[in-house]
Design brief:
By secondary structure, this protein is of the alpha+beta class. It has 19 helices and 14 strands. It folds into 2 domains: 2-346, no CATH class; 404-592, no CATH class. Helices cover 43% and strands 17% of the residues. It has a 7-stranded mixed β-sheet with strand order 1-3-2-5-6-4-7.
Length: 596
């Protein structure tokens, strides 16, 4: 008889549990995701009512961010806890990972101390001696954690950024320094003890365990309490490791946010915050707990509802009463404990203009700008491969500028040009010039630095702009130039405009660069009409260029010598050069301002 009663009551609990799930869904998810600190996690799995929401919340945080929405696991709570972030990998664009995510809201860089002067001197010495290794040419001098792009900001970072004004598109960048104050220490201390008390209070779950054991609950007493045991253990571990909440006294990352520039659209407002505490919920321990918890909770729920029909009526009634009690207690904990966003009021952002900021702060801001440049590579219509060798290290580029004494060259002077080279006739252009391309700073970098300083440049021409460090006839120059990513696989009449994605999939595509030069021995001609064309298929290293007049370059553009580009006359190349010079000058000045 008792078994029949238990079965009927146990079957009815499915409906009761469904109703209770609606009542406690939001609180269960928030506590599971750590929005109330580690103390809240200990209470998340206290009740079997609403257990499936614990499963969903844990799974949403455990799976890769880019797959969350496609799996139906997205939600405001997980966004607030950890946001949506993808590591920036310039080796591949991986467009499917970003499908449906929208625009990047911010870019984060881990702040790592470094010896700036030592790196600059190392690069400068190696350039002068010609001993710059291929790996160093490709920008692998600095070893640091990859930057991260945020498509959805977590609640903690959002609460910080929402307090700060943004610089408009036409204004130079301002820097905010996130500084903890005396109140920060008190806040952290209060939250620490509150979380410990909350965790220990969850041990009242043992009352249910001993009650069910006393009433003869057989295996029910431990199966139903297993999720709590896992979450309790995890909460204790997080507290011991100091990961229950974000530690405002430990600054581990810098963030740049706003309407960031992209290859196809200029950026608008921007703001930089240095010294933002790391999101503790991104730690491996949180991830492990979230990965384990769903399996434990599902197993416990299945086991519990399989055992309930076999239990006596007192056991079933007691179990149901405890689940309802824990559900109410969980709601109380959710409303009385402080959320993670409460901590942001305990720190004071220091606002500084670029001129007022310290050298260290400027250098960190520059690292963020390079990270934005790398992010553009991952979404570039040309694909990531063309930018594999671009120099995106501020300190390394500073070492190169040291060699050229921080001067940009508009026209490289060439000597020993034979009179019969034919460089000054439309049919000429056969004279070969050996060169050594040491480093390339592409359009993504130039675009980003111009945006940061509020300098207006032609966005379309920036697409083909470049700054090249090149050694010609024994001297190193830093020269703004023009280059296009093109191929020969299309018909003579075919034309692809800027922004075409054909270059990202075409195996025959390569860089064609036009470097402005002048004949140092011929002063009566307009020396601005000379170019060295590089089309060897290499990005860096020693190669041979061809000398062209502007008339010859114009003729080649007119007859579509190069496919997959939109340029059709030399005037368009000259416009790109003007944009390159403006952007390169801004880039140089910003970089120089961060040197000792």
């Amino acid at each position: 008889m008792s078994g029949s009663l238990g079965f009927k009551f146990g079957s009815g609990l499915v409906e009761v549990s469904a109703l209770a799930t609606i009542l406690g869904a939001s609180s269960a998810e928030a506590l599971t995701l750590g929005l109330k600190g580690a103390g809240g996690m200990a209470w998340a799995a206290m009740s079997s009512f609403g257990a499936l929401h614990v499963v969903k919340a844990a799974l949403s945080a455990a799976v890769p961010d880019w797959s969350r929405d496609s799996l139906g696991l997205g939600g405001t709570h997980v966004d607030s806890a950890i946001g949506v972030a993808i590591e920036i990998d310039t080796k591949t664009s991986l467009p499917k990972r970003r499908e449906g995510l929208g625009d990047v809201r911010a870019v984060k860089v881990a702040f790592l101390p470094h010896s700036a002067n030592k790196l600059r001197k190392t690069v400068a010495n190696k350039v002068q001696s010609g001993d710059l290794e291929e790996g160093e040419r490709q920008g692998r001098i600095e070893k640091a954690k990859a930057p991260v792009s945020f498509y959805v900001l977590d609640g903690f970072v959002s609460s910080i950024l929402n307090l700060l004004p943004a610089s408009s598109a036409s204004d130079p960048l301002e820097i905010f320094q996130y500084l903890p104050n005396d109140e920060t220490i008190l806040t952290n201390s209060d939250c620490l003890w509150t979380d410990w008390i909350t965790i220990l209070l969850s041990a009242v779950k043992l009352i249910e365990v001993f009650t069910l054991l006393y009433l003869g609950g057989q295996h029910l007493w431990w199966i139903t309490s297993l999720p709590w045991l896992v979450s309790f253990t995890g909460a204790v571990l997080l507290q011991i490791r100091g990961l229950g909440r974000d530690d405002l006294n430990i600054a581990q990352s810098d963030i740049i946010a706003g309407t960031l520039p992209s290859p196809l659209s200029p950026g608008r407002e921007k703001k930089i915050v240095l010294g933002v505490p790391a999101n503790s919920r991104r730690h491996l321990i949180w991830l492990v707990i979230w990965a384990i918890l769903p399996a434990v909770v599902v197993s416990s729920v299945i086991g519990t509802f399989l055992l309930l029909p076999t239990q006596s009526a007192p056991v079933v009634y007691a179990w149901a009463a405890f689940q309802a009690l824990w559900l109410l207690a969980r709601l109380v904990i959710y409303y009385v404990t402080e959320g993670i966003s409460y901590q942001t009021s305990a720190a004071l952002p220091l606002r500084q203009s670029w001129k007022e900021a310290s050298t260290s702060s400027r250098r960190r801001a520059i690292n963020l700008l390079f990270a934005v440049s790398k992010q553009q590579v991952t979404i570039h219509p040309r694909g990531a491969a063309p930018y594999a060798h671009d120099r995106m290290s501020g300190l390394a580029v500073a070492g190169l500028f040291d060699v050229v004494q921080w001067e940009l060259t508009d026209l490289i002077p060439l000597v020993s040009v034979p009179e019969d080279a034919g460089v000054l006739t439309p049919s000429g252009g056969g004279f070969k010039v050996p060169v050594d391309v040491v480093a390339v700073i592409g359009d993504t970098v130039l675009r980003t630095f111009a945006w940061a300083q509020g300098v207006t440049i032609d966005h379309s021409d920036t697409y083909d702009s470049v700054l090249i460090f090149i050694r010609i006839q024994g001297s190193l120059f830093a020269i703004p130039a023009a280059h296009v990513w093109c191929c020969e696989c299309l018909g003579n009449t075919a034309l692809r405009h800027r922004g075409s994605r054909h270059g990202s999939v075409c195996p025959e595509a390569k860089w064609i660069s036009w470097i402005p030069v002048r004949d140092a021995t011929v002063e009566k001609h307009d020396t601005k009409d000379l170019f060295v064309q590089l089309d060897s298929g290499k990005t860096l290293g020693r190669m041979t260029g061809t000398l062209l007049t502007s008339a010859e370059l114009h003729r080649r553009l007119q007859i579509r010598t190069w496919k997959n580009i939109s340029l059709s006359k030399v005037e368009e190349v000259m416009a790109i050069l003007r944009t390159s010079r403006v952007a390169a000058s801004v880039f140089k000045d910003v970089l120089k301002s961060a040197q000792n």
